[in-house]
Amino acid sequence: MTLPGRLLTSCVRGILRIICKIDASELSNVPMNGPLLIIVNHINFLEVPILSTKLLPREFYGLTKQETWKNPLLRILANNWGGIPIDRSNPAITSLRNAEKVLKNNKILFIAPEGTRSNDGKLRKGNSGIASLAMRTNSTILPLAHYGGERFWQNIKRFRRTRIIFKVGNPVKINYAGAITRQIKRDITDQLMFELAHLLPSGNRGVYSESRKFEKDYLIKH
């Protein structure tokens, strides 16, 4: 990490202590090395700085909206926190290849399958690209969920700290070797999203609140 990156990371860490009360004890269950694909729910802007400061000194990367690099300070953080720029409206093949390269080089890659912030903390439908990436790289997948951040704005208006809790699930691998159809990718993605949902309180599970039967279970737990 560069000197500007270390200084900004220290500043971010200090600010987070003031505005949040973070239960990150389960993050110790995240391995130090990859190849590992971590799927995480996306509530608002808080999870990226929290995870980036709490998981050091692990080397990790994450798909990050390309607009981040337009801000000089955010650019420094994105470059030091393993940001991989991506155009969310039109994901370039280069971004996806860089993501694959991270996993093939035994690193840790973060992806938020929802693709956008929920703001209310309720889980949204996952994008099926996560299944394609996991199968192409034969990566172990680790569900990592958090909740509490959805109350940040109402808490900050009352000068209250926001309690945010992180939960780490069981690592899984995809067990499928046949032709990859759109429906299979959809089923695998939904099964992965249910793994995330099970780590959340019932009120935060959103579209994955009700259990669903699949013709085949494509996930193997480690």
Defining traits:
9 strands, 7 helices, 35% helix, alpha/beta, Glycerol-3-phosphate (1)-acyltransferase, 222 residues, 20% strand, globular, two-stranded antiparallel sheet
Spell out the blueprint of helices and strands:
Layout: H1 3-19, E1 20-23, E2 36-40, H2 47-54, E3 60-65, H3 72-80, E4 83-86, H4 93-104, E5 108-111, H5 129-137, E6 140-147, H6 152-157, E7 162-168, E8 172-174, H7 182-197, E9 219-221
How does this structure look, described?
- Helices cover 35% and strands 20% of the residues.
- With 222 residues, the chain is an alpha/beta fold.
- The chain has one domain (3-221): 3-Layer(aba) Sandwich (Glycerol-3-phosphate (1)-acyltransferase).
- The longest helix is centred in the N-terminal third of the chain and has 17 residues, at 3-19.
- The protein is globular.
- The mean pLDDT is 92.
The CATH topology label is: Glycerol-3-phosphate (1)-acyltransferase
Strand elements, count:
9
- By DSSP (H or I, 4+ residues per run), the number of helices equals 7
CATH superfamily: Glycerol-3-phosphate (1)-acyltransferase
Give, in order, the helices and strands.
HEEHEHEHEHEHEEHE
Report, as a whole number of angstroms, the end-to-end distance: 32 Å
Number of domains: 1
Q: What overall geometry do the principal axes of the alpha carbons give?
A: globular
Major beta sheet summary: 7 strands, mixed
Strand content: 15-25%
Helix content: 25-40%
Poorly predicted residue ranges: none
CATH classification, class level: Alpha Beta
In round numbers, the mean pLDDT is 92
The SS-based structural class is alpha/beta
Rg computed from alpha carbons, rounded to a whole number of angstroms? 17 Å
| Largest sheet, spatial ordering of strands | 1-7-6-2-5-3-4
Second rung of CATH, namely the architecture = 3-Layer(aba) Sandwich
